[in-house]
C-alpha cells in the first residue's frame, strides 16, 4: 500500500448513520443524486461568489457547470463540478465529522428507530435536512471515491474514498483542475443509476432549475433556466410563457402572471401563474397544488402543499427562498414555522396582485372571476388569515347590473343610497329565479340595490360577514330589522282592502290552519305583486336547502315566518272562503305556503301537493 495513504475513522455518529444508509431499502433512494448535484451547485456557487469578491483566484477559469458521466459497463456514475473543491483539512472536517448538534440528534433518532425494530426500510428523506446529504450516496454505491482540489492557489489534490464501513482513506491525487469529482461504484441493485436515461429523468425531476448547466455525458439536461431569479425586465413574454408551459405541462397561455422578489423580512422570489383555464369547473377532479418550492434554485418540494393554501391550488409556479434550509424534509414542511411564514407572505402578495388587476383592468378581472371564482370563494369561506382581502375580490350581479356585469362589495357601498341601512343580498339559483321571486319586490319598489347570490357558498360567506365597511350585510329573505324602511306607507287600494280586524282574524286562521309548519303568520309590508312570502329565522333559504340535501332524515322544511299580502286578490279570495266556512280555504292556504317555499328555493314534498293541486284545478275548471 502507498505510504501516503492515510486511513481515518469516521466519527461514531457517521458510522452509525452509514450503517443505516448502507442497509436501507429506502424507496426514494434516487434522491442521492439531488443531494450530490446540490452539493456541486453549492460549491460552484461559492466559487462564483469568491470570484466576485476576491482577487486571489488561481488558474484559468473553468466553466461553471456540473458534468455527469454514466458508465454502464463499469457500473459507475461520476459527478464533476468546477466549484471551490476541498483542502485535506476541509475533507476531514466535512466528510468525516459532524459538528452540528442537530445532525447528531437526527442520527441518534434514526438509530433508535432502527433499534426499536421498525425494519431496514427507514425513511431517509430527512437526510439532506441535517447536513449529511453526501452520505446518501452510500444508498446506491458500494464505494465512493472523491477527487478534489481547492480553488485556492497552490492547493494540492486529494483523493477520499470509502466503502462506508467505519473508515475512509485519504491520499494525494494528481488532479490539475480545481473542483470535485465524485465516482460512485454502484451496488448491484443500483445499476440502473449508470443508465443515462435514468439519470436524465431524475435530473429533470429534481434539479432542472439548478442555475448551472448540468450535462449528462456531455449533453446539457437542464434546459430551463431559473428565470424567477432574474429581473422581470430581463425576461421576455415568450420566456415567461414557455416557462409556464414547462412547469405545468400546459398548452394554454397563462391568464395572469405575478413575478416578485423581496429580501425582508424573508428572502423570497416568486413567479406565479394563473392558468388559462380552470378545468375543475368542467367537472374534472380536484386539482393538485401547482407551486414548486425551491431553496436557492434547488427543488425542495414539487407541488408543495405547505407553501400555498388549498384554495390557491389553481395557481402554478415557483417560490424560492434562500432562508429555507436546503433539503428541508417534506414530512416536516407542513409544520415548519418558516414555511408557514412564506406561505402567508406569498398568499398576501398574490391577493394584493389580484386586487390591483381588478382595479387596473376590470373587464379582464371579470373573465378571471368567471373561471376562477370558486377558489376565491373557497378561500373567503375558509382562510381566516386572508379573509378581508379575499372578500374584497368577490363579485356579484345585482338588480342594478346588466346580466354578466359585476360589482364588488366596495362598489356596492360606494353607490348605496344615503338612507340605506345595510348591504342586501338575495339568493336564488339564477338571475331569472331571483327576479321572479317575491324577495326582490320591496327593493325594486324602493330603488335599492340588492346583490344576487347564486350559490350556497356565497350565502355562507356573506352570512359569516356581519359587516363590510361598517355596513351590515343582510339577507333579503331573512326576518330582519335592517330591511329597507318597511313602515313607510304601503300603496293601498281602499275599496278592496280587508278591514284591519278582519286581517287579524285571517292571520290567526292561517296560523291555526298551517300549525307547526310556520312559526308566525303576519301581514307583509314588503310585498307588492306576490300574495305571500316565507322568511327564514336563520341563514338563507339556500343554506337551509343545502342542509335539507345533506341531512336526508331532516323532516320537512324548518318552520319559517309566513307573511301575507292582504291586498292580493288571492288572499282576499281566501278570506272570503274562510268567512263563508268553505273548507276549500284550508287547501288554498296550504298551497300558498308551499308556493312561497318553492319560491324560496326550498324542497317541498311533491306527493301531497300534487293531489291538492288537482283539487284546486278541479274547482277552477269544472263548472258547478
Ligand atoms: N462537491 C463538493 N464540493 C465542495 N465541497 C463539498 C462538495 N460536496 C460536499 N462538500 C462539503 O461537504 C459538506 C458536507 O456535505 P453534506 O451534503 O453531507 O452536507 P451539507 O451539504 O452541508 O448539507 P446539505 O445537504 O443540507 O446542504 C458540505 O457542507 C461541503 O462543505
From TrEMBL:
Residues 479-488 have a biased composition (Acidic residues). Residues 546-624 are annotated as: C. The keyword Nucleotide-binding applies. Keywords: ATP-binding, Chaperone, Cytoplasm, Nucleotide-binding, Stress response. Its main location: cytoplasm. Residues 479-498 are annotated as: Disordered. Pfam families: HATPase_c_3 (PF13589), HSP90 (PF00183). The keyword Chaperone applies. Residues 1-330 are annotated as: A. It is found in: Cytoplasm. Molecular chaperone. Has ATPase activity. Homodimer. Belongs to the heat shock protein 90 family. This is Chaperone protein HtpG. It comes from Dehalobacter restrictus (strain DSM 9455 / PER-K23). The gene is htpG.
Amino acid at each position: 500500500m502507498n505510504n501516503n495513504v492515510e486511513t481515518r475513522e469516521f466519527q461514531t455518529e457517521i458510522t452509525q448513520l452509514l450503517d443505516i444508509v448502507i442497509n436501507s431499502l429506502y424507496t426514494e433512494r434516487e434522491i442521492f443524486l439531488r443531494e450530490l448535484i446540490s452539493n456541486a451547485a453549492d460549491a460552484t456557487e461559492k466559487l462564483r461568489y469568491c470570484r466576485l469578491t476576491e482577487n486571489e483566484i488561481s488558474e484559468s477559469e473553468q466553466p461553471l457547470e456540473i458534468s455527469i458521466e454514466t458508465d454502464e459497463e463499469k457500473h459507475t456514475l461520476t459527478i464533476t463540478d468546477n466549484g471551490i473543491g476541498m483542502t485535506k483539512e476541509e475533507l476531514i472536517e466535512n466528510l468525516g465529522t459532524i459538528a452540528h448538534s442537530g445532525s447528531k440528534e437526527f442520527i441518534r433518532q434514526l438509530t433508535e428507530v432502527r433499534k426499536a425494530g421498525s425494519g431496514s426500510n427507514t425513511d431517509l428523506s430527512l437526510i439532506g435536512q441535517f447536513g449529511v446529504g453526501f452520505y446518501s450516496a452510500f444508498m446506491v454505491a458500494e464505494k465512493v471515491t472523491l477527487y478534489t482540489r481547492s480553488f485556492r492557489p497552490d492547493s494540492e489534490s486529494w483523493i477520499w474514498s470509502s466503502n462506508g464501513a467505519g473508515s475512509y482513506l485519504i491520499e494525494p491525487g494528481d488532479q490539475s483542475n480545481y473542483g470535485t469529482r465524485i465516482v460512485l461504484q454502484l451496488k448491484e441493485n443500483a445499476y440502473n443509476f449508470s443508465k443515462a436515461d435514468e439519470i436524465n429523468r431524475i435530473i429533470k425531476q429534481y434539479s432542472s432549475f439548478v442555475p448551472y448547466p448540468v450535462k449528462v455525458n456531455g449533453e446539457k439536461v437542464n434546459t430551463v433556466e431559473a428565470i424567477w431569479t432574474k429581473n422581470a425586465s430581463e425576461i421576455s413574454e415568450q420566456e415567461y410563457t414557455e416557462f409556464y408551459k414547462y412547469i405545468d405541462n400546459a398548452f394554454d397561455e397563462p391568464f395572469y402572471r405575478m413575478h416578485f422578489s423581496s429580501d425582508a423580512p424573508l428572502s423570497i422570489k416568486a413567479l406565479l401563474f394563473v392558468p388559462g383555464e380552470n378545468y375543475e369547473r368542467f367537472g374534472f377532479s380536484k386539482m393538485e397544488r401547482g407551486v414548486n418550492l425551491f431553496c436557492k434554485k434547488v427543488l425542495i418540494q414539487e407541488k408543495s402543499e405547505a407553501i400555498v393554501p388549498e384554495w390557491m391550488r389553481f395557481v402554478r409556479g415557483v417560490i424560492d427562498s434562500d432562508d429555507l434550509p436546503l433539503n428541508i424534509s417534506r414530512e416536516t414542511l407542513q409544520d415548519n414555522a418558516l414555511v408557514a411564514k412564506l406561505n402567508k407572505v406569498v398568499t398576501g402578495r398574490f391577493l394584493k396582485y389580484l386586487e390591483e388587476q381588478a382595479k387596473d383592468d376590470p373587464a379582464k378581472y371579470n373573465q378571471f372571476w368567471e373561471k376562477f371564482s370558486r377558489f376565491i370563494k373557497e378561500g373567503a369561506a375558509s382562510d381566516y388569515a386572508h379573509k378581508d382581502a379575499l372578500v374584497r375580490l368577490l363579485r356579484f350581479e345585482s338588480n342594478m347590473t346588466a346580466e354578466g356585469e359585476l360589482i364588488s362589495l366596495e362598489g356596492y357601498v360606494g353607490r348605496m343610497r344615503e338612507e340605506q341601512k345595510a348591504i342586501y343580498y338575495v339568493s336564488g339559483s339564477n338571475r331569472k329565479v331571483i327576479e321572479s321571486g317575491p324577495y326582490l319586490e320591496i327593493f325594486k319598489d324602493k330603488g335599492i340595490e340588492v346583490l344576487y347570490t347564486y350559490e350556497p357558498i356565497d350565502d355562507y360567506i356573506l352570512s359569516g360577514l356581519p359587516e363590510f365597511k361598517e355596513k351590515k350585510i343582510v339577507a333579503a329573505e331573512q326576518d330582519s330589522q335592517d330591511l329597507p324602511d318597511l313602515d313607510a306607507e304601503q300603496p293601498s287600494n281602499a275599496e278592496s282592502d280587508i278591514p284591519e280586524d278582519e286581517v287579524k282574524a285571517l292571520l290567526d286562521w292561517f296560523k291555526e290552519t298551517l300549525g307547526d309548519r310556520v312559526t308566525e303568520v303576519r301581514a307583509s309590508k314588503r310585498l307588492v305583486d306576490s300574495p305571500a312570502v316565507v322568511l327564514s329565522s336563520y341563514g338563507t333559504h339556500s343554506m337551509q336547502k343545502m342542509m335539507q340535501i345533506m341531512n336526508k332524515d331532516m323532516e320537512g322544511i324548518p318552520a319559517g315566518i309566513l307573511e301575507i299580502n292582504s291586498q292580493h286578490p288571492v288572499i282576499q279570495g281566501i278570506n272570503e272562503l274562510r268567512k263563508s266556512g268553505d273548507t276549500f280555504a284550508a287547501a288554498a292556504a296550504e298551497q300558498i305556503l308551499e308556493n312561497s317555499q318553492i319560491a324560496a328555493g326550498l324542497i317541498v314534498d311533491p306527493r301531497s301537493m300534487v293531489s291538492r293541486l288537482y283539487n284546486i284545478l278541479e274547482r277552477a275548471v269544472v263548472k258547478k
